Amino acid sequence: MNQPTAEQHAEADTADHLAAELHEDRILILDFGSQVTQLIARRVRESGVYCEIWPFSTEPDRIRTFHPRGIILSGGPASVTETGSPRAPEAAFALGVPVLGICYGQQTMCAQLGGEVAGSDHREFGRAHLDITEDCGLFRGVWSRGGREQVWMSHGDRVVSLPPGFRAVA
């Protein structure tokens, strides 16, 4: 396999720098193989925010030089409880930007940051309701405390306990 040359790295760095200037507010979606990653990106873009989708295995330096304002970890078919399952790059958490984990993304974030994830006795799939228990910046202008929102789920694992410093808002 050919390794990128120094010139190719310089070109990529320049392109990333230009993207940083053109799209100051931008979201990076790290894809774990979700069937709805493109839909997530579309919703972000419909909100007037630039975003890109990259594989979860993206090199940490590339994530850092992209300078995202936030990161979304998509869902995916893997189970956090299985040995060798995909993990989010540590750079996603080290940047100090908000990170939203959706389904598998939430489960791997919890497991990696000190929470506990366990397998369920059965898989859950289909329509569900999400009760909003606290106000938070993520929901501002969309949902409010006390609301009940229809969502879609497809998973077999569940978060048993949150990592230190995390709080449930729904």
From TrEMBL:
It is an enzyme of class 6 (ligase). Pfam families: GATase (PF00117). Keywords: ATP-binding, Glutamine amidotransferase, GMP biosynthesis, Ligase, Nucleotide-binding, Purine biosynthesis. InterPro entries: Class_I_gatase-like, GATASE, GMP_synth_GATase. Its EC number is 6.3.5.2. One of its GO terms (cellular component) is cytosol. Residues 28-168 form the Glutamine amidotransferase domain. One of its GO terms (molecular function) is GMP synthase activity. PANTHER family: GMP SYNTHASE [GLUTAMINE-HYDROLYZING], GMP SYNTHASE-RELATED. NCBIfam families: guaA_Nterm. This is Glutamine-hydrolyzing GMP synthase.
